[in-house]
Specification:
The chain has 278 residues and is of the alpha/beta class. It folds into two domains: 2-236, TIM Barrel, CATH 3.20.20.60; 240-277, no CATH class. It is built from twelve helices and eight strands. The protein has an eight-stranded parallel barrel with strand order 1-2-3-4-5-6-7-8, surrounded by seven helices. Helix 5 (92-106) crosses helix 6 (118-129). Bound molecules: 5,10-methenyl-6,7,8-trihydrofolic acid (MHF), 3-methyl-2-oxobutanoic acid and magnesium ion.
Length: 278
């Protein structure tokens, strides 16, 4: 497991780990070409690519479909794939079956699982023993949105923070290679990052994590409108994309496009012969 060593080294050396989500060939290709350390095929694809209002309808087949496209676009990047809703909570056999399919069909390096209950910890242990690296995910775990009562910041009280620290230690003990911390106070992610030997990757978890992850469509403002406070918009693609499509519409309607420059031609003799033949 060469990649595990590298992640671990980056934490030890204080070199920040960069991660972005990707869901298809072009997003993966651009992320790899830009030099990202890790790609996450997030179940957030339910929101940003499939148009659902949560990650709950996302299936293992969805993850495989998109995971394969990402792998084709980024053949040389560490790819992590989310285990989607309910692939961890039916039975151990069911979880292993889904994990096996996702890994074998996508050729990803690792799987990510939300939470730290008994089932999830056992899944982490079993996959790790089978040689499949696992990334944990604590704090705001969107697959539990209906239990959490909305997309709220987690771990804000002493009790909740202590529980999260205990969960993080358990996830590490079960064998996880890294831990995503989502939407928690920066003071808490600082403690967790110091307590753990594995790298923490934050999203809405402040500056003290060993790495950061953002959703592709959020950081590019592409097809999304309202985003969480923790999202930094590095560019806004909504405007230029919409503008380009509007210009195209106008040019077709006004017979400006396509002109000869964008058309194919026959030789004059052949055109004449064609008319003559009629
Ligand atoms: N486009 C997108 N980006 C994401 O980061 C993301 C998804 N989708 N879908 C799955 C989950 C859902 N996520 C979310 C969604 C909303 C907030 C949000 O609006 N949070 C409030 C917190 C308010 C509070 O508790 O104080 C905010 O205003 O930032 C946070 C995480 C993160 N994940
Ligand atoms: C927000 C990240 C961590 C995620 O789980 C996803 O994109 O699905
Ligand atoms: Mg996810």
């Amino acid at each position: 497991m060469k990649n595990r060593i590298k992640l671990q080294k980056m934490k030890e050396n204080g070199e920040k780990i960069t991660m972005i989500t990707a869901y298809d060939y072009p997003s993966a290709k651009l992320a790899q070409e830009a030099g990202i350390d890790m790609i996450l095929v997030g179940d957030s694809l339910g929101n940003v690519v499939l148009g659902y209002d949560s990650t709950i309808p996302v299936t293992a087949d969805d993850m495989i479909h998109h995971g394969k496209a990402v792998r084709r676009g980024a053949d040389d990047t560490f790819v992590v794939i989310d285990m989607p809703f309910m692939t961890l909570h039916v039975s151990m056999e069911d979880s292993m079956k889904h994990a096996k399919r996702i890994i074998q069909e996508t050729n990803a390096q690792a799987l990510k699982v939300e939470g730290a209950d008994e089932n999830v910890l056992e899944v982490i242990e079993r996959l790790t023993k089978a040689g499949i690296p696992v990334v944990g995910h604590l704090g705001l775990t969107p697959q539990s949105v209906h239990v959490l009562g909305g997309y709220r910041v987690q771990g804000k009280t002493k009790e909740d923070a202590e529980q999260l620290i205990e969960d993080a230690l358990n996830v590490q003990k079960a064998g996880a290679i890294a831990l995503v911390l989502e939407c928690i106070p920066y003071q808490l992610s600082k403690i967790v990052t110091e307590e753990l030997s594995i790298p923490t990757i934050g999203i809405g978890a402040g500056p003290y994590c060993d790495g950061q992850v953002l959703v592709y469509h959020d950081m590019l403002t592409y097809g999304v409108d309202r985003v969480a406070k923790f999202v930094k918009s590095y560019t806004n693609l909504n405007h230029p994309v919409k503008q380009a499509i509007k210009t195209y519409i106008n040019e077709v309607k006004s017979n400006e496009f396509p002109d000869k420059e964008f058309s194919y031609a026959m030789e004059n003799d052949d055109v004449n012969a064609l008319y003559g033949g009629n």
